[in-house]
Amino acid sequence: MTKKAKLGKRRKDRFYHLAKETGYRSRSAFKLLQLNRQFNFLQTARVLIDLCAAPGGWLQAAVENTPVSSLIIGVDLVPIKPIHNVITLQEDITTEKCRQSLQRELKGWKADCVIHDGAPNVGTAWIQDAFSQATLCLKAVKLACDFLRKGGSFVTKVFRSKDYHSLLWVFQQLFKKVSATKPQASRNESAEIFVVCQNYIAPDKIDPRIFDSKFIFEEVEPMKKLQLPAMTSSSTQKTPAEEYSELKQINVSEFVARADFMDVLAKASELVFDSSVFLRHPLTTEDLKDCCKDIRVLGKADIRRLLTWRKKMREFLDRQPESDSENDEKDTNKETEETGFTIEDEADAMAQQIRLDVHMKAKRKKRKDQMKERKQQEKMRLKMLVTEKSGNFFHDQELFSKRVNMKKTLESDHEESVPTKKKKQRQVEEVEDDLDPVGLAIGTKMATSKKAKREIEDSGYHRWSFNDDDLPDWFVEEEKKFYVKQMPVTREEVDQYNKRLKDLSARPIAKIVEAKARKKKKALRRLQVLRKKAESVTDLSGASGVEKASQLRNIYKKMQLKPKEKVQYVVSKKHGTRSRKPGRPAGVKGRYKMVDSRMKKDKRAEKNQQKAQKRKRRK
Questions:
Q1: Which of 139, 142, 157, 162 is catalytic?
Q2: Averaging pLDDT over each range in 154-168, 240-254, 415-429, 553-567, which range is the top one?
Q3: pTM of the full predicted structure?
């Protein structure tokens, strides 16, 4: 079977990382959510018991999907970290003490649903681990029958082993509807499967042998069924012993040779290598041998791999020459007699395996690149990835250009009415105010986490609406002080966007930036000209150091920009004689210019005359 990393960040499991993102304590929470989406057993569970609940992933999912103020109890051998609105017990579900603790917490109530996701400490032989899990499941259903109401539900995890059908037979005696399914969150290579039992019969008396693991899981000849009060199955249904009698070991040579190999695979519990030809073949890897040990626990990928191996073995056998005489058999190579294939066949098989490995490696790399590209596109869609075209600077520049164009339109449009101008000014103000820092923080939280988005949307239906009429004044004033809803964002997140908006407002406009850039460019040009002149002066061989220094000072003075002198305009006055030139006006310092008081009026009259002449020509 395929090997898979199972520790921390090395685990290649999207549900593992999704659980970390959404805040669930374990990836198994998605299994319960998917089962509930299919069978809807949590929506009506006013009282729920979770057996083997640690670390608490199923409890978290149950709290979110059960009705408000439901009673939820979690039981496990190890302590469970506290969860809001959940009662946790550290007990062993197979003991009487656990039963008494549950009775004390329920206080006479009956449970609507009992869920069980427990498994023993695995790591020994598979048969022993599967039997331990089946026994634990039998103990769980026994405890569930003591506390379930009539019509209640029971959800449990079981391993697909030879005891699987026995457990289903037990469930069918106690519940009207029994469904087995494997949710998407469960790994394909895992042997686990989930059984959802609905409509508990609640018989008056249950035969204790139905909860006895030695009796239920005993491998015996076909026997008559137990006549229990809880039995509702038809007489044509097979007993566990009858079903187990059909499971058998089949040789690999028979599986490869027969045309109805799918029927052989369906009836087989184990494929035994009876020939060294298949056992020593290079394509027979250790993973393939492990797959043949227990056919019942294989997933789709492992079955597909086994069928591909059978096809290649068929092709290999078809290429082998058939020997018609005993002399041919004696003359064959000793190695061929032992292994069943020659060195050339082994080389061909190895070459084929190498080509297959290269093809699979390229396929994995292509799938990885596609996954990376999809993630990048998703980040760009959620505005989590800043590119050259989608950066804040270009967006702000575009937004600024829109504001400037709108303002120019308002300034140039002198013929529009006052209400229209006010409306456009209001539109400009709306553009300048996009969202406030609180809205930006909430939007970011909704865009980066699906769970946070769901919580914020659910919190929109709250008790702070307060839109009643005809209330007393003293009551309204009191409510304004204390009846305030808390925002789903922290002060630090709001301050972060406040600072970002301040930085955006402090940026200079595009014209100022361009003017500064032009000024800097001119200064660089003057500096280059000054550097060339200074180099030409220093290269003079006949001049002394004092002369070179004086020339450099003169060049530096000429290159310096002199501030523009302000010109003051003074209106001329009439004097007694025209021959006399007027002197500097009193109180005027620096440069000044005498202007005629009639000059402005004369120019305006001249323009009006030109406009009147143009109108006459048009007429």
A1: 157
A2: 154-168
A3: 0.40
